[in-house]
Amino acid sequence: MRPVRILSTLWGRFEVALAEVAKFGTVGAAAAAVDIAGSNLLRFGVGMEPLTSKALSVTLAATVAFLGNRFWTWRHRARHSLAKEYLLYFALNAVGLAIALAVVGFTYYVLRLHGPLAYNLSANVVGLGLGTLFRFWSYQRWVFLPPELPPVDPHTGLPVPTEGEPDAEGEPERAGRGSQG
């Protein structure tokens, strides 16, 4: 019976995390399909430049991903205003896009590999993969916070003191008291 108890304890600890990873992966797969199809359609169907086609496809895919992650993957997490979440989400998504564009730009302009295979490997395997790893980490850290954690200041990444909690100087935070900086 001991192995069953150990497995049950482990499952209890990781159940929420595994569910989030699975949902994030499902939403990500849908967004990746939009990204890959969109970038190829714009690049090879419409004839746009590689960086432009990737930037536009990522923007559309990010909208799909935001909606899926906000209302399904992390629906149980603390909510802030939708506008604030959307803004933070897209700011972090811009970093993910920059990662993908750096890979595409390096492949296209430095290595001078211009074919469809080189484009798809750089844009939709390496760039998308690295950007996805960054997005998963950053969304959990700054956008979709666990309900038990305090809100995070987007400028510092530190928890925002709530009423009655000590501030940076160790004094209780009071409503209406601003920084005297």
Automatic annotation (TrEMBL):
Residues 23-144 form the GtrA/DPMS transmembrane domain. The chain crosses the membrane at residues 55-74, 86-111, 117-137. Residues 171-181 have a biased composition (Basic and acidic residues). The keyword Transmembrane helix applies. It is found in: Membrane. InterPro entries: GtrA_CellWall_Glycosyl, GtrA_DPMS_TM. One of its GO terms (cellular component) is plasma membrane. It is a multi-pass membrane protein. Residues 151-181 are annotated as: Disordered. Coiled coil: none annotated. It holds the Pfam family GtrA_DPMS_TM. One of its GO terms (biological process) is polysaccharide biosynthetic process. Belongs to the GtrA family. This is Putative flippase GtrA. It comes from Actinopolymorpha rutila.
